[in-house]
Amino acid sequence: MGLPAPGIPVLHAAHSVALLGHLDEVPVIEGVAEALAVPESQVRLFGKPECLGHRRLGGRNCHQCGCP
């Protein structure tokens, strides 16, 4: 697109994991309490009413090194 992109500083190590559905039914999300027990972690659920095939239903972000 030719637009200028500013430098992006790296403040600390982090990672993100997609929460995926695999069946054609109403999703059941488990393990949220365990994920939030990790300091500086976030869980984002997209609120989709059903899972159709292989669909992204949310994500987990963590700013700690060595998160499970």
Using only C-alpha atoms, the radius of gyration works out to: 16 Å
- The portion of residues forming beta strands comes to 25-35%
Chain oligomer state: single chain
What would you call the shape? flat
**Count of distinct strands:** 3
Q: Give the helices and strands as they follow along the chain.
A: EHEE
Helix content: under 10%
Describe this structure in words.
It is a single chain. This protein is mainly beta. It is built from one helix and three strands. The chain has one helix spanning 32-36, and strands spanning 15-21, 41-45, 55-62. A three-stranded antiparallel beta sheet has the order 1-3-2. The mean pLDDT is 80.
Secondary structure elements and pairings:
Layout: E1 15-21, H1 32-36, E2 41-45, E3 55-62
Antiparallel strand pairs: 1-3, 2-3
Features:
three-stranded antiparallel β-sheet; 68 residues; mainly beta
Short description:
The protein has 68 residues and is mainly β. The chain has one helix at 32-36, and strands spanning 15-21, 41-45, 55-62.
